[in-house]
Amino acid sequence: MEPSKVQSEGGLNVTLTIRLLMHGKEVGSIIGKKGETVKKMREESAARINISEGNCPERIVTITGPTDAIFKAFAMIAYKFEEDIINSMSNSPATSKPPVTLRLVVPASQCGSLIGKGGSKIKEMRESTGAQVQVAGDMLPNSTERAVTISGTPEAIIQCVKQICVVMLESPPKGATIPYRPKPASTPVIFSGGQVRADPLAASAANLSLLLQHQPLPAYTIQGQYAIPHPDLTKLHQLAMQQTPFTPLGQTTPAFPGLDASPPASTHELTIPNDLIGCIIGRQGTKINEIRQMSGAQIKIANAMEGSSERQITITGTPANISLAQYLINARLTSEVTGMGTL
Questions:
Q1: Cα distance between residue 292 and residue 133, in whole Å
Q2: How many CA atoms lie within 13 A of 85 on its CB side?
């Protein structure tokens, strides 16, 4: 590799390990028939590509090698995913091509450097590469790692990964990292009786959006330790029953052929006035923890910015998790504003 090439990639040509979180269908695409695709990727990129074992809906793909080998492997993965998108569109009425999306798993101690002071670094990455970059607010379960989602054209993703690698090499992780290990996943659905039942195919975002149409909120009823609006939970229960046959806990096989058991995680951001943030957090974080538990979403509240009268809330999870979290946050706000009492 000539020096000018090395310099153009941040002056780096050292060995690095990058971990990716993928759904089963994506992993199948990377492996290919009889492992031919991953074999070709390993040979052409010269990177080591390992895929975690298991029948989980999510798998970890670990890419190790010199930075130039990692960039080649990422390029091949991004172009393969784009090819999959184009192939799936040939049988679909959709006209606009969705972006390629990759999820990196990054030690939480490095995420601050990726975001930069006041979000300056992540903003610079978005502007200079054209890729969308989102850092999850909360750590992945039982780990000290966070998901970093990159989406855009394959070219934008490759440029973005190069910049992320530079930051990760300049700011090594602090302390020990507990790596994320995917487990058979299921999403809790809350019933009107207050019990929680796991279901890998939770009610879709479109159905849950019915709950977000901000009707005047009804009286609350205490169920377990949570106060929940009566009719809305019944509606959520009915929607869930209409949409999804239940699978036993721990069984992750989708009930519908071709439907991924674990919908892709996405992120939604809200801004809340400073003077209302307390009613969402609750004493010692009790209310926000209830909302996290009930919705199944990861919820991160940004620190107060100097001179700003608002705080940003980042919600990460499946579309259904996000919709339910938004609904619960709105319910808290409405009860505060209208003086309806405590949720």
A1: 23
A2: 18
Query: CB burial class (10 A; 0-12, 13-18, 19+) of residue 113?
Result: middle
Burial class of residue 254, CB neighbours in 10 A (0-12, 13-18, 19+): middle
CB count within 10 Å of CB 236 equals 25
pLDDT in tens, 100-126: 999 999 999 999 999 999 999 999 999
Integer Rg of the chain from CA: 22
| Dihedral angle sign, alpha carbons of residues 63, 35, 159, 102 | negative
Query: Does 191 have pLDDT greater than 60?
Result: no
- Kindly report, residue by residue over 55-74, the tens digit of the pLDDT: 778 899 999 999 899 999 99
Paired sense of beta strands 310-317 and 266-273, if any: antiparallel
Measured CA to CA, the distance from residue 105 to residue 144 in angstroms comes to: 10
Q: Using an 8 Å Cβ cutoff, are 343 and 330 in contact?
A: no
H, E, C per residue of the chain? CCHHHHHHCCCCCCEEEEEEEEEHHHHHHHHCHHHHHHHHHHHHHCCEEEECCCCCCEEEEEEEEEHHHHHHHHHHHHHHHHHHHHHHHCCCCCCCCCCEEEEEEEEHHHHHHHHCHHHHHHHHHHHHHCCEEEECCCCCCCCCEEEEEEEECHHHHHHHHHHHHHHHHHCCCCCCCCCCCCCCCCEEEECCCCCEEEECCCCCHHHHHHHHCCCCCCCEEEECCEEEEHHHHHHHHHHHHHHCCCCCCCCCCCCCCCCCCCCCCEEEEEEEEHHHHHHHHCHHHHHHHHHHHHHCCEEEECCCCCCCCEEEEEEEECHHHHHHHHHHHHHHHHHHHHCCCCC
